[in-house]
Amino acid sequence: MQKVSAKPFEKEQSTKGKIQLKKSAKILNYQMDHYVNISDLPEDLLLNILSLLPTKDIVATSGVSKRWRYLWKKVHKLRFNDQIYEGKKYETFLHFVEKALLLHKALLASLTFRVGPKCTADDIGLWIRLALDRNISELIIKRYRDHGHITLSRRLCNSTSLVSLKLKNAILETISLPACFSSLKTLHLVYVKYSGDEYVRSLLSSCPSLQNLVVKRHNEDNVKRFIIIVRYLQSLTMYLSPLHYVADSDVYYINTPNLKYLNIKDHCTEQYSFEDMPYLEEAYLDVAFTHSEKFFESLSSVKKLSLCLKKSNKCLCHVQDQYLEGVIFSQLVHLELCTCDDSKWLNLLAKLLQNSPKLRVLKLNDKQNHNVGKYCSSSWNQEPSYVPECLTKTLEVFEWGNYKATFKERDIAVYVLKNSLCLKRLVISPKLNISEGIICDHQIIKEDLASLFLGSSSCELKFV
């Protein structure tokens, strides 16, 4: 390849221009020397690149050159989406899927189907059979929202090769139990229909190696008592649609003794029953069931805790105090507490500070951006009888998002700042609060907090 020269232009350029032109020529020559044709890349890298594309586009690359003609057959991930064929006959899509699965020769690690209303149980059944015959390790089946549910094949019952199974808008009623998913480690059940309470329990008991479980529920799953008993489960995420109708009889039972990660978002169900989780490290809870007797006790080993407690049908202030009594969060170093429900979080904060001797990071935030009146009736009933150990010995970071500068919020800020002897960073994000005709000016808030006495002389104050 011919090198670029700066000489033809030298007579017309100033000294500064010559220097710049030589630099540009040098850069261009470097780029030419290091130019790489995609076909010259190693095969493993090409296969990884192709695996990011829809299968239709992967197969289309077979016409690029002789080298690419059979390359698509070695790709370890295939993704089929019938919406790509929108406007064409659905039979074209069916023929393409079947032919691609039959012609693909290499080990197939992952297979994804995203389908709409034209896809039938027979279609899915055929694809599942072809996939399992290849000893596939990951299978993803998702039906598009607003197109109902897709019934899955009985063939899915017994698969010793599946390591990951992710389902959305599917019906599992026809799958006979007990099944055998001896190698399954990841299971996603998103808006799935079951045949009843016992079906869920039997399904999970068929997964002895399960480590990661995601459950998202809606109002049509036919389950009242959702029982999760999985011995080796390490990660559990649960979400209940706000449109879900919850009866008084609805309840969860969770027995996961090796759990390390817990994430629950459920503003409806009030009856949860937990067994001990001694290895729990992270918990993110946006819930309304804090009166559960073992709720706080089951969290006692957690290291990072995020709590957002919603209003329920019962007044839970005194109940929280009762269940927190004697519960020590001996490993808790990071606490995030939502301030959206003013009837709960004030006293809860006091208890958590008292019972968390190693706390290093405290974050308060109104995630719902609720406006609270300046003279709100809720109160910080009384300051703790003694200064919590975490304030005098370990707390290093204090952040408050959507700080509304109510009298009680200011009282809490004063108390924490005065007693936190090791505090290194204070971050305040004020909120423009218009309530009862009162406007909280950010500059006034900043000047007020900056004037407060700080227990730590090395604390950095930041407003964002």
UniProtKB/TrEMBL annotation:
Which positions fall inside the F-box domain? Answer: 35-88
Q: Which Pfam families match?
A: F-box, FBD, LRR_At5g56370
Q: Which domain of life is it from?
A: Eukaryota
Gene3D superfamilies, sorted: 1.20.1280.50, Ribonuclease Inhibitor
SMART domains referenced in this protein's UniProt entry, alphabetically:
FBD, FBOX
Looking up InterPro entries in the UniProt record yields:
F-box-like_dom_sf, F-box_dom, FBD, FBL13/AtMIF1-like, LRR_dom_sf, LRR_FXL15/At3g58940/PEG3-like
> What name has this protein been given in UniProt?
F-box domain-containing protein
Q: Which organism is this protein's natural source?
A: Capsella rubella
The top of its lineage is: Eukaryota, Viridiplantae, Streptophyta, Embryophyta, Tracheophyta
